[in-house]
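Run log, item B.
One chain of 462 residues. Sequence copied directly from the ordering sheet:
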Amino acid sequence: MGLLRQPTGDITQGVIWKQLLGFFFPLWFGTFFQQLYNTVDTLVVGRYVGKVALAAVGSTGVIVNLTVGIFTGLSAGAVVVIAQHFGARRWEDVHKSVHTTMLLGLLVGAFFTVAGFLLTPWSLRAMGTPEEAMPGAVLYLRVYFLGMIPNVIYNMGTGVLRAIGDFRRPLYFLIAASVCNIVLDLLLVLVFHLDVAGVAIATVCSQVLSAVLVVVALMRSEMTPYQFFPRQMRVHPEPMGAIMLIGVPTALQSVMYNASNIVIQAFINSFGTDAVAAWTAYGKMDIIFWMTVTAMAQSVTTFAGQNYGAGQYGRLKKGLWVSAAMLGVFTVLISAAFVLLARPILGIFTPDAAVLEVGVEMVRFLAPCYITYILIELLTGAIRGAGKSVVPMLISVFGVCGLRLAWLFTVVPVHHTLEAVMASYPITWSITSAALLLYYFFGRWLAPPKSARGGASPGQPQ
């Protein structure tokens, strides 16, 4: 590759809490703009087109979330592999991993473009999409799937940047894409009257913009091991295997989480319109917590990946518990604010008194339980950063999904109350956290990589 300039983004030394917060805030705001990005389509069609168009766009949410979960899971595999090589100063491996990652994004995007376009009508009917919303839903999803390649390229490209400690540029790219999406939504719907097709086209255009920005950023990273050369994209077997070994279980975990949420929604539906409306409003409020815990977990994954690659195992563990302390404080503050301000916050989404009563009960039951969840994300993120994703995935899927489904189908039919449904959350969170803690203390997840067992990797203590 020739002589490379020493890259920035090294987090194998320095003040841990400052580095974690330096990652956390760009990720948090990035998630905020991602949510804004996703919400604008719904707001525009609901306000300016009509309820049928709103139902059409809304009915696609589950499929969109499933596909995005798969992409982000594969991206997480790339983050870990590149971060480990970066931390170990294995520049040739960084170069190979980057070009393997980008080609993987191109191939996965092409596959989902074809499969999604062909399977859209079947998947919407399988979910019971109302017949009057079907034409708009099919149109929206098919246009959305035409943007799969830039969508996946963006996720993979930002994964590369985050792996080397660059969390700011992905935020800037997402802000630009969000602004583009809002402007085009209003232009195509209000001026050109393209309705559902307009918001779908706006989404694809913003995805193209974000993909172009991230690719250009990687191509202009001159004299660094992560500089991207499109003609050098190829499958390097070793990084490809490592990315899939970490990324596929992570993607599967996301898919299972979404599946369990669909079942939860079905049980909530059995309590009537007020409960469904309250659960929807609570979900809009609840996203603040999930944005916070996800941003910290992604920060920990990159931190763990680089320090594992550098052989800084003690620093990796310290970073995990520093992040747990910070996230614990954030969680307590969020929980307290939700409990105290439940009614006025929910009132933003609905003025209905009966819905508000149910929503306040939901908030006051679940918000104090958030603290039981945070270790699931942080332990999984740290262990995944060390290259071990299968066992944490199995523990999480069994605990968060399997036990929750068992509770819903055995306890809830006997005690058919909202409290019984909601209790499935803290109970399964607590059990899963305990299981992950056992694996953290007694599992062999921190064993040195094979390349280091015959001798220390670059940067590894001997």
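Observations after the first pass:
- Confidence is low (pLDDT under 50) at residues 451-462.
- The CA atoms of residues 310 and 371 lie 31 Å apart.
Flagged for discussion on Thursday.
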